[in-house]
Amino acid sequence: MRVKRSIRAAAVIVVVLALSMAGTAHAAVLLSDDFNAENGGAGALNYFGFTNWTVSNGSVDLCGNGFCDLLPGNGLYLDMDGSTGDAGKLTSIATFSLAPGLTYVLSFDLAGNQRGGSGDAVTVQVAMGSAFSEVFSLGTFDPFTTFTRSFTVSAPTIATISFEGSGGDNVGMFLDDVVFATPAPPGLALLGAALIAGALARGRRRRARSASGA
Q1: Are 182 and 23 in contact (CB under 8 A)?
Q2: For residues 95 and 193, what is the distance between their CA atoms, to the nearest angstrom?
Q3: Domain CATH code at residue 37
Q4: How distant is the alpha carbon of residue 152 from its chain centre?
Q5: Could you tell me which residues come within 8 angstroms of residue 209 by beta carbon, excluding any fewer than 6 positions away?
């Protein structure tokens, strides 16, 4: 699973690099969070103690590492419909100063409801200036899927990032691996390619050892 996470991270880097080669030399990772450091690495119901986020309009559950772990092997991740009968809204504590003309990239993993519920969705916003807003939904039991969106703003914008679950039955979609960045200089493209190649090679070696019984 570390291999899969490395591939995801490297893929986001390559998307950012491609955008940078199209026209800007600015580079910064503004936010990166896989939730694995929360609560000492242990899951918890109705968790509010996030390092990078506040929770409002309900609650979210911190799942994984054996606790309400319906998608094992992914470390910690969030059930966006917590255990209070009211789906939660997760908003970044940090605010981001978005510059006009720059391209920004937001990447995150979502998985469908894993307990047979229906009608769940997650609204994703880069807001305060309505820079970006989209509603995402997946089918029941769909695995983690990486979504990447890019956008520009036409005027200086102060923004936060938010993820808001729908529903009120304590069963929602899952969120993981949030990355918010601006493009990087073209010279880093080789780094992104090397990360992907290395992750794939490690995965092949691990599968080969498993197949041989080593």
Answers
A1: no
A2: 31
A3: 2.60.120.260
A4: 20
A5: none
Rounded to whole angstroms, the Cα distance separating 53 from 181 reads 17
At 39, give phi and psi (nearest 5°).
50, 35
Q: Is residue 159 part of a domain?
A: yes
User: Rounded distance, CA 180 to CA 131, Å?
Assistant: 13
- Tell me if 60 sits within 8 A of 44, measured CB to CB: no
Is-contact 96 180, C-beta < 8 A? yes
* Chain length of the chain: 214
Residue-wise pLDDT for 129-179, tens only, equals: 678 999 999 999 999 999 999 999 889 999 999 999 998 888 899 999 999
Domain count, the chain: 1
Beta strands at 61-64 and 145-152: parallel, antiparallel or unpaired: unpaired
- Residue 202 covered by a domain: no
pTM of the model: 0.78
